[in-house]
Amino acid sequence: MKEKSSSTNHEVMDGSDIMELVENEKVFSNFVDHKFQELDIDCDGKLSVQELQPAVNDIGAALGLPAQGTSPQSDHIYAEVLNEFTHGTQEKISKTEFKEVLSDFLLGMAAGLKRDPVVILRIDGEDLHEFVTSPTFEPEMLSIYSEIELPDGSLKDYIIKALQKLTVDQGMPPATDPWVMSNILEPALESLGDSLQQPVSQETFLAEFKRAAENVVQLLKEQPAIVAHSQNTFDGSGIRRLLSNKFELDKTLDSAIKGAPRDRNGKISKEYLGVALDSLAASAGLPPLGAVDQMDHIMNEAIKMFDAGDVKTVKEDEFKKLLTEILGSIMLQLEGNPVSVSINSVVHEPIASSSTLLQPPSP
């Protein structure tokens, strides 16, 4: 279900629409038939890597990711999506395989949205205008000014850095996003002209920043930014739930090592620990490797700790034991120091229209 609110310009994606689609076998089969036919350009009854690309892009758009090539983090997730379809080796997949993977993805998305709903914000300058005209504007901006360390920075550099420190709560879309930079920030600063040549001081910063912010307000009124916003806290609870359910843990570990390459003695290289951990991340309430820097550090350090030693390959049971111990180590770290991450992605248009993945076929 999407909860819409016109007064606050947001809608909440909680995954219930997706669950309804996948759980209705007849409707979902028709949905898959339509999508498969749409993608199967050469009509050979199979989908090539090239034919799968629009589906991969659509899954990314439905997740609120920026376009491929925009950032290494999102590109990593796109690569993982494609790998799930092709298992990293197949050149073509059948309709049955397509349906299986699509179902898994959609159910995973629904579960993720239920656990951590994505709020779609329409940022149109109103909240930023309120902030700029509020009594807290001056003290907050002076506080931000004192945090900026740019010894040789120009007034323009200071203003850009300060805009990057504002959040969606203050009505500012992510200022580092290329679309926001070219469509909002650059025009807003350009209209300040020669005043940006002034020496940097607290007074000039405050005066010119306010002018820049007012320009941003006007530009957002003309061209609102649509931002997918989610707040996640990784506290180890997902790992604890998984470790406390032996049946679920065994099933997850089996799935994680299913495609693991083995030597002639059936042993698995410890170098595969990262890939296996990445594949079970969602089941343990963890982000994919490459998606969150702080979590990457914790996960990679745990892998290194258990990858140490001279033994490079281990039997399947020992490999599963190592994975379980890695999960336990990550859990203890997160329980002691939870990692909170606020993710804001500019999607430029509402998710419902930016992705054709969840749009039903025309009658």
What would you note in describing this structure?
The chain is an alpha+beta fold and 363 residues long. It is 56% helix and 11% strand. It is built from 16 helices and nine strands. The protein has helices at 16-23, 25-39, 49-62, 72-86, 95-115, 126-132, 137-147, 155-165, 178-190, 202-222, 237-243, 246-256, 273-280, 293-307, 316-336, 351-354; strands at residues 2-5, 10-13, 47-48, 92-93, 118-123, 225-234, 268-269, 313-314, 339-346. The strands form three sheets. The chain has a five-stranded antiparallel β-sheet, with no helix packed on it. Strands 3-4 form a two-stranded antiparallel sheet. β1 and β2 form a beta hairpin. α1 packs antiparallel against α5 (95-115) and α14 crosses α15. It is globular. The relative contact order is 0.12. It comes from Sesamum alatum. Keywords: Calcium. GO terms for molecular function: calcium ion binding. Residues 27-62 form the EF-hand domain.
Judged by helices, strands and strand pairing, the structural class is alpha+beta
Strand content: 5-15%
Q: What would you call the shape? A: globular
How many helix segments? 16
| Quantity of strands, as a count | 9
Mean pLDDT: 83
Strand count, sense and barrel status of the largest sheet are: 5 strands, antiparallel
What sequence of helices (H) and strands (E) makes up the elements? EEHHEHHEHEHHHHHEHHEHHEHEH
Physical arrangement of strands within the biggest beta sheet: 1-2-5-6-9
Q: Regions with pLDDT < 50 over 5+ consecutive residues?
A: 1-8, 349-354
Helicity, as a percent range = 55-70%
Head-to-tail CA distance between termini: 22 Å
Radius of gyration: 24 Å
